[in-house]
Amino acid sequence: MAESGEPETTVDKREKEEKEANSTTEEISFRSLGVTEVLCEACAALNWTTPTAIQRESLPIALKGKDIIGLAETGSGKTAAFALPILQALLDTPTRLFALVLTPTRELAFQISEQFEALGSGIGVKCAVIVGGVDIITQAMALAKKPHIVIATPGRLVDHLENTKGFSLRTLRYLVMDEADRILNMDFETEVDKILKVVPKERHTYLYSATMTRKVQKLQRASLHNPVKVEVSDGGETTTELYFHTQQVQGLLLGQYSE
């Protein structure tokens, strides 16, 4: 470091910038990002002290009510990045069938449900997992109780939308499509199309994907309104980008996802 009165060198400036960057990162907490106290306590109970890169970038945007396209891998902390804003909004406006999370697999659906329940343990959040391989009558009974959060695979959810009496998504305020690239690669295009046609147009939508394929781009244009794109690289670097659509496409046509 340069002594007092001496001009600062390039090395000095770099060291100063690194210290400032490290200090800024250390100061960032869930509370400083805008997460309410009861949810901060839930994060602390899970030993989450510092938000991950995707959480640092996504949470302030989501808490402002913006739609999000998040490009991040599994294990990046993306579930909390969409769960915390949903739970915070649920606190402000308690509503049954408040949010729907679409996932490609039953295993991921159960993992997401566990995280919602852990984060929402202090506010009494109720979740229902709707996936294949589970008795459909039992699921219908769970839906009849009108949980706050539904986590589902697209195929089984469409079964209930078409066949379970009294079940609808008219009160839905939040839609999440997690691992959207995998959802589309598993040939759920038709089911996603049907779901988008029955959920309210006035909603918040989060789309998370490991990759931005042509299919995901088309899904984004059809389901999100002026979203902010948040991308986390392998090295943890983040970029944000604001998208504007002059017209939001409502509903998807079969074959629209073709490469």
From TrEMBL:
Gene3D superfamilies per the record? P-loop containing nucleotide triphosphate hydrolases
Chief localization = nucleus
Under InterPro entries, the record lists:
DDX47/Rrp3_DEADc, DEAD/DEAH_box_helicase_dom, DEAD_box_RNA_helicase, Helicase_ATP-bd, P-loop_NTPase, RNA-helicase_DEAD-box_CS, RNA_helicase_DEAD_Q_motif
Q: What is its EC number?
A: 3.6.4.13
Q: Does the keyword Lyase apply?
A: no
Superkingdom of the organism of origin: Eukaryota
Helicase ATP-binding domain ranges (all copies): 59-230
Keywords noted in UniProt:
ATP-binding, Helicase, Hydrolase, Nucleotide-binding, Nucleus, RNA-binding
Example of a GO MF term: hydrolase activity
The text of the family note is: Belongs to the DEAD box helicase family. DDX47/RRP3 subfamily.
- What is this protein's record name? RNA helicase
